[in-house]
Amino acid sequence: MSINHIRPWRHIERRKSRQIHVGNVPIGGGAPIAVQTMTNTLTTDVAATVAQVQAAAEAGADLVRVSVPDEASSKALKEIVRESPVPIVADIHFHYKRGIEAAEAGAACLRINPGNIGDEKRVAEVIKAARDHNCSIRIGVNAGSLEKHLLDKYGEPCPEAMVESGLDHIRILQDHDFHEFKISVKASDVFMTAAAYQQLAEATDAPIHLGVTEAGGFVSGTIKSAIGLGQLLWMGIGDTLRVSLSADPVEEVKVGFEILKSLGLRHRGVNIISCPSCARQGFDVIKTVETLERRLEHVKTPMSLSIIGCVVNGPGEALMTDVGFTGGGAGSGMVYLAGKASHKMSNEQMVDHIVEEVEKKAAQIEAEAAAAE
Predict the structure, then answer these.
(1) Residue 208 gets which letter from DSSP?
(2) CA–CA separation, 158 and 164 (whole Å)
(3) How far is 29 from 260, CA to CA, in rounded Å?
(4) How far is CA 267 from CA 35, 169, 215, in A?
(5) I need a labelling partner for 14 at 20 to 30 A (CA). Which of 43, 90, 265, 334 fits?
């Protein structure tokens, strides 16, 4: 990201990292921060898993992780990979042979957990399979499954133990001349997560996958992730991320993009700026925003929309957005286009009209981008 001379306080200097590829998606080295989620269907139910992968991809997921707990799942993975619109990351725990099978099935990346994948000899076999099948690896350290010798050494899960685990496995991969890897050090505790990632960022130039693991339900998990990932991203740390929620994977993708959008690190779809509503509102702001979020899900073009209930902040917010609507009186409000007051519109017709204006603006932005190529 180039330095913003107009608003330097918005500038984020991203950590310099090596670049690897997960399938056709570049990770690190200045590439856009990739958003990932994970399926929660039985992997052996190919139809259900593929449907979930496709829904996540439609929501904007760059990568989707699929659990491979047994041999039957390995067999199903081959068909899932074939039908997936995005690269598939195979989640491997306990049995190294699942990693070998996943690489053979076409997985673009293998997530291995140092705490349960086995000794160096077994890891070496997974590395060979990854190399033979052009597959990258994620070293996925988790505070809840650290190696016993590290728990004995440190007494409990802590940032130092997590980073040591990750660096030990980096050494194994590098000793086998394998460098197509990224790494994560996740915990459910926001403080531990942030501290571990800060230490990790200083210790390696490998691409970093961010996440607060087992963050919780939709509301609590979103808040934990926004705090934990947000501060790390603000510091320039992170090349890919997953928001772990006890919710639909599509919601994980949406929250991930919203975190990135709020920091100006990724832009996709309509960014709605809206007021919380109060007695001054000239229309039902909450219901209107809920409807617009649903009606505008199909718009992928990055753009902004302000929906403000009254004229206190409405005109000012509209100055900074592509399309805006500010509540007035007598059942109507003002429509703003490109920051300027354009025309009045009745409250009854304004949702359909705003959707129309947003679609029109999106088409204009896309046409201008195409002409500039």
Answers:
(1) B
(2) 10
(3) 17
(4) 12, 34, 24
(5) 90
**Which residue is it, tokens 């639909």?**
248
The number of beta carbons lying within 10 Å of the beta carbon of residue 294 is: 9
Burial class (CB in 10 A: 0-12, 13-18, 19+), 24: exposed
- How do beta strands 340-346 and 63-67 pair? unpaired
Extract the tokens encoding 297.
């899900």
Give yes or no for a contact between 300 and 269, defined as CB atoms under 8 angstroms apart.
yes
Assign 91 a pLDDT band (cuts: 50, 70, 90): very high
Comparing C-alpha atoms, which of 343, 365, 368 is closest to residue 354?
343
pLDDT mean over 326-351: 94
Q: Is the pLDDT of residue 4 over 70?
A: no
How far from chain centre, in Å, is Cα 167? 24
- Residue 360: both structure tokens together: 């029109």
Q: H or E segment at 71?
A: helix 71-83
Kindly report the average pLDDT of the chain as a whole number.
94
Structure tokens at 237: 């740390």
Question: Percent of the chain scored above 90 by pLDDT?
Answer: 91
Residue 67, H or E segment: strand 63-67
Residues 6+ apart with CB under 8 A from 68: 43, 74, 77, 90, 91, 92, 98, 101, 102, 107
- Residue 347: what are its φ and ψ, rounded to 5°? -60, -35
Q: How far apart are CA 60 and CA 33, in angstroms?
A: 12
* Whole-number Å distance between alpha carbons of 346 and 137: 55
Q: Please identify which residue in the block is written with the tokens 């509503």.
A: 277
pLDDT, residue 1, reads: 39
